[in-house]
Design a protein that fits this description.
The chain has one domain. Helices cover 69% and strands 0% of the residues. The protein contains 8 helices and no strands.
């Protein structure tokens, strides 16, 4: 099995893709973005695929019940949000309130990150990042919430897109046993590098 930090980096690449697809749509506008019929399907399909991949993480990278529950919840809400957005793009779902599934995904992910990390902020770098990611998702859940009620607002859509890019940068910073701000708990173990 590959190290868990590599799995985080793979998900970081996927989050970066989500953010760049959404940001490109905001920059050119939804009408121009939809001129190619396949483009609106990019980010919801990627999100749904990330949810599918998270099931593998749940099976192969869990070391406790809380990790299994958190990864399972993330898999479900990513697939729910991706499926809802795919339904909206396809026209099978009509109400823009289906975008609240993304809000639910952000909220569950934020809570999951906070509950899933059993160590304090300054235990090691991955602990710090899990806390930071949890609070980032909870604070940024305002973007998908307002986006459900104001789907044409570029400000909220930009915030939604940039959240994924910020999360990607955080995930790229992950190393399992590494100091944070020069501090590493003696209980964390020996740093990898």
């Amino acid at each position: 099995m590959i190290p868990s930090e590599h799995v985080h980096w793979l998900f970081a690449s996927s989050f970066l893709g989500l953010g760049l697809f959404l940001l490109a749509e905001v920059i050119v506008g939804p009408e121009v973005w939809a001129k190619r019929a396949w483009r609106p399907y990019l980010w919801p399909s990627l999100l749904f695929g990330m949810g599918l991949c998270m099931w593998g993480v749940m099976v192969f990278y869990t070391n406790s019940a809380i990790h299994m529950i958190a990864h399972g919840a993330w898999a479900q809400v990513m697939m729910l949000a991706g499926a809802a957005e795919l339904g909206l793009v396809r026209g099978k779902l009509k109400s823009p309130y289906w975008r609240l599934c993304s809000f639910i995904a952000f909220a569950v992910t934020g809570i999951g990150f906070l509950v899933h990390e059993q160590n304090g902020w300054f235990f090691q770098r991955s602990s710090f990042l899990h806390h930071l990611l949890g609070w980032t998702f909870l604070a940024a859940s305002v973007f998908p919430f307002v986006r459900a009620f104001r789907p044409r607002s570029a400000v909220w859509a930009t915030g939604f897109a940039l959240t994924f890019i910020v999360v990607a940068v955080m995930l790229y910073s992950d190393r399992d046993l590494a100091p944070i701000f020069g501090h590493l708990s003696p209980y964390a173990g020996v740093p990898h590098r």
